[in-house]
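In the previous chapter we treated chains in isolation. Here, by contrast, the input contains two separate entities that must be folded as one system, with a combined length of 278 residues.
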Amino acid sequence: GPKQPTITNYFGRA
Amino acid sequence: MFELTMAKGSILQGVLEAILDLVNVANVDCSSKGFSLQALDTEHVVFLSLFFPSEVFRSYRCDEDCSMGIAIADMVDLLRASNDGDIITIKVTDQNFEDITITFESPDKTKTTDMDLQLVDARSHRLKISEWHDMESEYQAIFCMPSAQFMLNCKSLSVIDDDVVIRVNEEVISFSTKGKSGCVNISHVPNKTDNPEKASVTLTHMRGPVSLTLNLRYMKSCAKVSTLFDQVKIGLSTKLPLMVECKIAEKGYIRYFVAPKITE
């Protein structure tokens, strides 16, 4: 099935 | 010094209760404009960003910007101990930046309860995101719907499977899922206007058809918070996380950013 990436794939750490 | 007061059962307390199933620890930033909070869920799939403008509180004072890590679950536990009618004060003094003080005052002012909650390190919950007005234009489709409808869709779909596919085009907004026991497809014919009516589903921005697959566990969590408000706004993009937003007063918001699932 489809994989679940994390949100840090979209937003970098501040 | 930072100090805010609110009545028991106010919107901040309701929101903190509702985000607990995803969030343990949050970063809180206070400025003269208001109270903002950022947090990641424990699995780092969801980023939550909220802003409560100072005017939504009974009183609000912040002399100097401050940033602190708060164990939200502990704070909610303390807030639950308040009684109906109590006025709740949350305070940080300049001399002591290791804990926050929470005070309950009974309506007749004859009983006061003071509690100190230790601050924690929540710096890892801070992410770099663009200004919202820059980001909003990146979304391919944005629609609004009644929060109760959003919750109902998530609940109906989760009977069948763990994932939902949300598809948006000019003609239809659909929520669908397929599982071992069957499939569900919920379609809404959207209104197209900049001023969404409270009871309808409205497509406010459309730059091309888009479809995303999301885990319903996170969507149900977003839906839970949204039911504290009449309407929810949902943004889809192939390059950004799904965005679920509820507005608080004129300038305030709660925004969930949920990483969609991807097919390799």
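Chain A has a mean pLDDT of 90. The radius of gyration of chain A is 9 Å. Compare these points with the single-chain example from earlier in the chapter.
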